[in-house]
């Protein structure tokens, strides 16, 4: 399993193809799988690898929060397609013919990739439009340093609705011993908006003084 060597073009191509139909390496929200592959990649893929480039920039935008993504980190070879991208095999010394146009294997691989993309595009025409989603990071501030932050988070996570999934959270120092709750959620755009989140969370006014949108990114 795996993408192969992500420092080489073959590995980046494999990652790009894998992300053609996915937003993340595993599941529908950022996880340790994304962190491991991001670190293995090392640098932003070239712009011609559209899917891999988009994914890299998105994961990079989380900064240090990448370390707190949910899940268990595994070896990078555990993630990706069922078989790693094959490295080019050197020709035997006996074969002195110079191939100016690339090997048959490369041509076949390119042909298969083109067919796969064409089939995917055709399938999209007949498929119902994919649900648009966003990942939101909320900053929720308490009244003072005596506010029970565990209870506050419990209240926030009790907000449930179709199209809303809560993710990771952390407490961030603000001033004079006061900490704010920073929590991530993934929402379906046509079902959940930021006004709904604000209205529901501010109902817990025994704990919540204010709520701000720290980040809002389309998936």
From TrEMBL:
Name assigned to this protein: Eukaryotic translation elongation factor 1 beta 2
Pfam families in the cross-refs: EF-1_beta_acid, EF1_GNE
Region (Disordered): 66-95
PANTHER family cross-referenced by the UniProt entry: EF-HAND AND COILED-COIL DOMAIN-CONTAINING FAMILY MEMBER, ELONGATION FACTOR 1-BETA
UniProt KW Protein biosynthesis keyword: yes
Annotated family: Belongs to the EF-1-beta/EF-1-delta family.
GO cellular component, one term: eukaryotic translation elongation factor 1 complex
Transmembrane spans: none
UniProt keyword terms in alphabetical order: Elongation factor, Protein biosynthesis
MF annotations from Gene Ontology: guanyl-nucleotide exchange factor activity; translation elongation factor activity
Species name: Spirometra erinaceieuropaei
Residues of the Translation elongation factor EF1B beta/delta subunit guanine nucleotide exchange domain: 133-219
UniProt lineage: Eukaryota, Metazoa, Spiralia, Lophotrochozoa, Platyhelminthes
Superkingdom: Eukaryota
């Amino acid at each position: 399993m795996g993408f192969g060597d992500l420092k080489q073009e073959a590995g980046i191509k494999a990652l790009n193809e894998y992300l053609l139909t996915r937003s993340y390496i595993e599941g529908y929200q950022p996880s340790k799988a994304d962190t491991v592959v991001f670190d293995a990649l090392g640098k932003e893929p070239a712009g011609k690898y559209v899917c891999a480039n988009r994914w890299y920039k998105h994961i990079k935008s989380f900064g240090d929060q990448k370390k707190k993504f949910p899940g268990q980190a595994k070896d990078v070879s555990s993630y990706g397609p069922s078989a790693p991208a094959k490295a080019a095999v050197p020709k035997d010394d006996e074969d002195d013919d110079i191939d100016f146009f690339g090997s048959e294997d490369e041509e076949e691989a390119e042909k298969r990739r083109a067919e796969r993309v064409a089939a995917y595009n055709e399938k999209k025409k007949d498929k119902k439009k994919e649900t648009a989603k966003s990942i939101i990071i909320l900053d929720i501030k308490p009244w003072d340093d005596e506010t029970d932050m565990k209870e506050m988070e419990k209240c926030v996570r009790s907000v449930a609705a179709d199209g809303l999934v809560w993710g990771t959270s952390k407490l961030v120092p603000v001033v004079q011993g006061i900490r704010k709750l920073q929590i991530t959620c993934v929402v379906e755009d046509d079902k959940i908006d930021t006004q709904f989140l604000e209205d529901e969370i501010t109902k817990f006014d025994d704990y919540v003084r204010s709520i701000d949108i720290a980040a809002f990114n389309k998936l």
